[in-house]
User: What shape does this take?
Amino acid sequence: MKIAVVGTGYVGLVTGTCFAETGNSVVCIDIDVNKVNKLTNGEITIYEPGLEKLFLRNIKEDRLHFTTNLEEGIREAAIIFLALPTPPGENGSADLKYVLGVADDLGKIIKPGDYKVIVDKSTVPVGTAEKVKATIHQSALKAFPEGGGLDGAFDVVSNPEFLREGVAVEDFMKPDRVVVGTNSERAKKLMSELFGPFVRQGNPVIFMDERSAELTKYAANSFLATKISFMNEIAQLCERMGADVDMVRRGIGSDDRIGKRFLFPGIGYGGSCFPKDVQALVKSSNEVNYDFKILNAVMEVNETQKLHLLPKIKKYFKDDLKGKHFALWGLAFKPNTDDIREAPALYMIDALIAAGATVCAFDPEAMNNVKQVVGDKIEYAENQYAALKNADALIIATEWNEFRTPDFLKIVSTLKNKAIFDGRNLFDTTAIGELGFHYESIGRAATN
Ligand SMILES: NC(=O)c1ccc[n+]([C@@H]2O[C@H](COP(=O)([O-])OP(=O)(O)OC[C@H]3O[C@@H](n4cnc5c(N)ncnc54)[C@H](O)[C@@H]3O)[C@@H](O)[C@H]2O)c1
Assistant: This one.
């Protein structure tokens, strides 16, 4: 099948590459000339495990192409995916200017009689499929007033994306489920055909109406964010009541009504999705006169949690961080990605600098992205141990695997104080206590 993907960021590039991998002919379109040039030259623009191999293979097999020209990119496509940004607008609701902007452009270039399915893959508020449809129609009417619009020439489908950064290829190639919102039988048939190879093991393609599909995505992300904030509040209680959150987590996670996943406390959720999607659902709720109380609390808990380690650090240094120097392990909002959008580490950096401290950071993949945002406000180390040089303490903000079993002797010999503040609960408190560290984590007793 011929596919076009408009927007070649995290979702667009994974989507385009994985569709090419199952034999489709894919054109990815982006307005960022630099990005398109790099991709055309076989240079991958994001770090995502397993993606580069598929990306290079499909370019070589001539199934994956890149362009900045929308008209050329969609010309032969039967299905056009919109994987465009939907950042928070001024009031926190999802800003649809990118999605509706492209819809407007599509209205000018889709030809009557050349049926196309336009798929919202971006996370968009309920009612967006209708807005996209109306925008395409109006734009077509304006462009060709005598043509009478594009009735029947296209369908707009909602197909929210559930991939997780860090395991995006695996999630896309073997999704737990595919949600498709459409009432058009013609579109349904094409979407079934396209997703068939991805659900051969029997996972469902769930068809529903557009509005339910749109809400499904927000409900999924908001529920997961709620689970995280809930556990972060349990961790707060553990610290105050002398309980151990690891024990509580295991105790409740073995109940399959609750499940083991998303029960790890930490320094808050970040990333390009949870913060904006929770906020957008609250805004959408307000617009229909509903106060989504739980989600307001979820956001409030997350704000506090991002800086949960700070009072502990301040207390250890007797409330004076001026002139103190910290090693920071981890910048990405989670491991196995270079994405730093809303990363808790960035909030930690700002707070430390505001308190008069300096920071030397290391992250296996995200340092270049952080350099573009933070610049030389902090130092960057070549590896995790180099970051420890002259540091008064170590702070851990991302649970990269390589931080889990470090060489503690090296840490001891380099750090000025045997102090670790761990926002991701990487180490066993007994073992690290025996090594003589002052170790503070989330929801567990401090050692020494
Ligand atoms: N990142 C994730 O893990 C994830 C997961 C599920 C859903 N989503 C949703 O998918 C959507 C895209 O997210 P992302 O993380 O891929 O965003 P992104 O910012 O990484 O990528 C968006 C791309 O769209 C391009 N673009 C902007 N305007 C354009 C235009 N007019 N024409 C062509 N290209 C244009 C940008 O240059 C950029 O490359 C968002 O709605 C997001 O909420 C993201």
Notes: The chain has a mean pLDDT of 96. Residues 6-12, 29-32, 35, 83-86, 98, 101-102, 122-123, 161, 163, 165, 272-273 surround nicotinamide-adenine-dinucleotide (CB under 6 Å).
